[in-house]
Amino acid sequence: MKRLAIFISLHLFLFLLVIAYQAQAQAEEEEWSIDRYETLSYARVSGEVTHGDNLNFWIRTQDNCEKVYNTFTVYTYEKPGDIKQLLDKNIPIKINGAEVTAKVQDISPFLMGYRVHLSLGSYPIKEYIYFLKEFYDEFQKYEIEIVDGLNFTASKYFDIRNNSWKLDKLVPSVLEANKLCREFSHKKL
Question: Per the confidence metrics, is the pTM higher than 0.90?
């Protein structure tokens, strides 16, 4: 009888430990990093499929803190010999199913593969983040998928071709990064 009580207690303890871990993971799902580096500030959120893939919002003092550069990173384990030829090319993607392109800005060795940094463009801050927030609210997701295109086979370069990000805290996070930029810009004057 004592063994049964210990057995049940141990399983109950493990069950509660797993539940506590999942609750903590859910609470951390949408952690934004907001910081400044030299003459720019940024707001960044990690991906849900590949945690190390980030969706970034860069704000530069050179633009009077009025523009936001929207970029994202993709880690790939694929190592084709011609991956560097993608640099400065626009590759086909879908954002929530809508076909657009993203410009490859950087490709660097990372862990056992490559980290590819892609740009979605630069936009006036407030208009863009409020537009993006409405877009996110409409679909209840923000998902980017790298797709095949003319003379481009996505699976040759990317083993995981899609990721999604939670943007519930998009507006306050980017506005906080904008505030950091403006504070730094005023200190320089």
Answer: no
